[in-house]
């Protein structure tokens, strides 16, 4: 992968043609923006733009090969700022603009770009390369009959509280059926930010995955519950799972059960499967936060929140075990977590588990995880 900021790039880029003009003024900039919009995506080059008076302007993003705050350059004689980034043509990047004035900085979405992505922590501007395509199975299909969503409250003796779960049943769910089960960590976020209901409707309708009942989990404190928590694993496996298999028409065989999670949710999925080996037939791990100790003994960099995760990952890498039959691993090539994946993949494969790895030109984002769901679910829960 080659991602880099470049001084000029292709001389025929729109910004370079503007730079070569003489007597560029505000009207010239107006016409340029009206014609090209922002950012300007041209082949493997993307030109990010900002217009306004400032002391400094930086592109705020999390692409592993770039500084988190990439300086933008002012076009002489104007209030237009730009930076050119070279990246694969199917890339998708979420970003903001950091503006510095009078010793103060403010980070916000790109005012020149109406395209936004949303997440639990807010929104970000989006830049897509010319070859990035929104998968059609993420868009509502009038021919795909909708599944049913119901909110449940499950009392947990282990957690000493009620636990909310949203249950998805595929269209035409039959009381005498023999359905597979998918358990989704951060279930509310998958429903809200990754179009999970639409994706399930479409994949099942198109026979890209098996007819599946899905339990979307709603954690109270995900950073604690998902960091190799024995209590969380016990609740799901010894309380929730028996209840679901008693009350709904599930096959009840380990090979028909799958755990799905992204980021910390991927850690929770692997941790749960390790604590209860042979219970879950497949795992779908998206951008797992598999932070481990550094070989040089320096701090791992994740802060105290990651301490239990690091202990868990270190131990798993030392003593890898077969926790499921099949493991799907997805990661964005732009996210810092990409450097953790090779060692985890090697650990998984060393146990004899069937592993599939898919890498995308995206970051640690909900849209990236949405876009990987077909790969993950059609492999972990195939039709037939």
Automatic annotation (TrEMBL):
<dbReference type="InterPro" id="IPR000801">
    <property type="entry name" value="Esterase-like"/>
</dbReference>
<dbReference type="InterPro" id="IPR050583">
    <property type="entry name" value="Mycobacterial_A85_antigen"/>
</dbReference>
<dbReference type="GO" id="GO:0005975">
    <property type="term" value="P:carbohydrate metabolic process"/>
</dbReference>
<dbReference type="Pfam" id="PF00756">
    <property type="entry name" value="Esterase"/>
</dbReference>
<protein>
    <submittedName>
        <fullName>Enterochelin esterase family protein</fullName>
    </submittedName>
</protein>
<dbReference type="InterPro" id="IPR013783">
    <property type="entry name" value="Ig-like_fold"/>
</dbReference>
<dbReference type="InterPro" id="IPR014756">
    <property type="entry name" value="Ig_E-set"/>
</dbReference>
<dbReference type="InterPro" id="IPR029058">
    <property type="entry name" value="AB_hydrolase_fold"/>
</dbReference>
